[in-house]
Queue: 3 jobs
Job 1
Amino acid sequence: MNEGLFWAVALVIAALAGAILFAAMRRDPGVAAGGPDLAVYKDQLAEIARDLARGTIGPEDAERLRAEIGRRVLEADRKAAGDPIPAGDNRSIRLVAALVVAATIPAAGAAYWRLGAPGYPDMPLGPRIATLDAGIAARPTQTEELARLGLMRDTGTDAAALAAAAALAEAEALRTAFRARFQAGESLAAVRLQERLIALAGTQSTAADHANLALALVAEARGYVSPEAEAQLREALARDMSNEVARYLVGEMFLQGGRFDQAFRFWRPLVEDGNPEAPWVASIRDRIGTVAELAGIRYALPDATGPTAGEVAAAAEMSPEDRQAMIEGMVAQLSERLATDGGSVEDWERLIRSLAVLERLPQAQTIYDEAKAKFEARPAELSFLRMAAVESGLNP
């Protein structure tokens, strides 16, 4: 059914329902008065005649009962023909009916527009999932996505880096070179180095090696999980199903393809049992509730450290000046704790973003530079810090 025909049919049905509702609400309640009573009295008169014929009552009793029933019939008839509803009351009923109908139909249309899917074709769950899977399978390759973003590779750019790494011919040297290039934001160089590492290691390549190559490919494509990245993620999970980077990126791939149920399946173990200090856990916590809702799954996040409900409510009631002061105090405490005791990459990322919100960009840049030095040997953490820096307007 096309969209125009659907809305036409819906409008006709709504008009018919409104007309029935309006007619019911304006109906005169006194029209049927007395009807049921008169039927009962008629049955009673017939019963008296049968009792008299059987001899269970005498003529005098029968006459007395008929007189009593006749009196009640006259009284019921007078009620049925009594005063009509005043014209003013009748107008009020009609006005209320019109208002109810006028409010109900637009409200129903607005609810459908908000909760329904106007213009979406009929599609059972099975074919819908098959369509999403086909879309994931046919998504652009890494090269096609880079071309769309205007980031075409220059294969000669990293010849010197590759030659230097190849001369070393050692996996650890290649891993060190990869971390350095990835940390510097040189995604293409990182991809080439990691490809060289995997080719050198062969069957001895680890799950982390393949997960890091997928991470570099995703970073190069600005967050897009291409089929090439997916192939590396499959290799990583084939070696270690618990690899958290790979599970996180597989969830991202399914999220981009609209398979929210599969994204939830890969992310839930990470948010419940994964390393709480891992940067991807913070990213998942921010989104898994929405993902679960889109997948039609009832889910509540496990408890995490943070402000209590009372603290949130108190902050909502503060004046803008008091709220700003509270945020400043929390940022100062977090900054002091990181400077003295250190913390997870999630804490560093939160501090960077908080300083950016407070428009203290020079300080945020300084904190970001310190965090880069702290996590220089951990590519996954560096990618999350770099994302925070880019989104906060810093120099990555």
Note: Residues 219 and 383 are 8 Å apart (CA to CA).
Job 2
Amino acid sequence: MAIGTERVQRGIQSIEVGGQVLLALVHRGGPMALKDLAREAGMAPAKAHPYLVSFARIGLIEQDRVTGFYFLGPLALQLGLISLQQANPVQVATPLIAELAQATGHTIALAVWGTRGATIVRLEEERAHEKSSRAVRGPAPSGGMPPPAAVPSWAAFERQLAEVRAQGLSRSVGEVLPGVNAMAAPVFDHSGAIVLGITAIGPAALFETRWDGALANALRGCAQQVSQRLGASMPRRA
């Protein structure tokens, strides 16, 4: 058993180091000179260059013959397209929301947008105890929908929408079910479209609704991880 675990954890350091060069190209999002690429990858140009030569030989990168700048090559494109074809948002998100449920102690739901609005397709509960005091077993099982809330005025909706865009989250403080709070983060795909909502649900007495709270940050982080795996654009590094 120990041997098997060791094999899983062991990696090839040179590949991981070289991978920093590819990550630098991805984060920049455009062609880069050798010196800039090396700096972003945290290594000297003389160290980065052999990796670039090898990556170019297999088609992961290419070099512009005029400017000398490096950019992602045809193999990188093929890998990306195949990855996008294989990516299933619910499948990608499921193991991450299980971890989120354990970390937060709240029920976590995955919702997709259907013909009748948001529909829960996956539900994860904290399993540290057989009956968690934070778990919410309300009227919205997997595939179901909560009862409709009152429709806000257009002005109120615009204010709420602006707040959601500013915070990267939406929240409900007892608005749908009395005594139950919820907070949700969007998941984006490679085209920038929202494909999922990750929602935390819990009793109001135990549920933190601050925009900068631990739960809010955990939700954002989980949604960003899923979005990244679905090919969504990541923020450039400073």
Note: The first strand starts at residue 61 and ends at 63.
Job 3
Amino acid sequence: MTMKTDLLIIGAGPYGLAMAIYAQQHGIKYQVVGEPMGFWQSHMPLGMRLRTHFDWGSEETLSAYLQHKRQNLDDHPVSLECFIDYIKYTSEEYKLSILSDHVERLDYENSLFSARLSSGAQIQAQYVLVATGCYDFKRIPACPLEI
């Protein structure tokens, strides 16, 4: 199975999902690949508080989330659990296209990127945004790929 998209977003953390919202709002066909907030859930210490404020997403989503949770903007620093929940809530509100899979290989040939996923699926994309951090990289190239 080969899927085609304009923008492949590798990583489903806050930055990858924020980019997906941006792409969606600008009519860019995209696909996110990754476990939503997986790194944050697996590798951040429980009870951690973030210095970040509730400024991820849009005002409408923020208001809806806060009403849903019966919270207010004064609840900061934001707890890790609240931050993860907020981002997942926002992803669902925007109905983001997220494929819970892992990119095993990324190639560039004939002006297209081709990503092979652990499920065996393939995605071809004109552009790629890597928003994974560097925790799971098996091999980090000496220099960035130049196109």
Note: The longest strand covers residues 2-10.
